[in-house]
Predict the structure.
Amino acid sequence: MKQQIQRTEEEWRKILTPEQYYVLRAKGTERPFRNEFDDHFAEGLYSCAACGEELFSSETKFQSGCGWPAFYAAMAGENVNLYEDYSHGMTRTEVTCAGCGSHLGHVFDDAPSTPTGQRYCINSVSLKFTPAEEGSAY
């Protein structure tokens, strides 16, 4: 496992917006269909909004209809961590950033039309998008 960035909750509150803190640090969820990256399909990279760790490529993004950005694979397996999540009376797999431990969303095995069969359902507010430079491949 990677060495995680260590900050106090007070430091995180200073760095993040209130909505980012709620999702990334308090494991909240933003509203579906009313977020920045659900319908966003430009080429580029999606990084952790808290620490900048590269997480997803636009190449693996797809329209799942779930209301949040969906990816069928993380950019590099070691950049995200997966944990069993039994909160809210459900059994799910939580996705966190390996760089800082921030909550990103959940991954589900319910996307049979994708190469992996997985749907990483990620909160937009937990992501920062960097557009591809002309001529680069993502």
Observations:
- DSSP finds two helices and nine strands in the chain.
- The first strand starts at residue 44 and ends at 48.
- The two ends are 25 Å apart (CA to CA).
- The beta strands are 44-48, 54-57, 61-62, 70-71, 80-85, 92-97, 103-108, 119-122, 127-131.
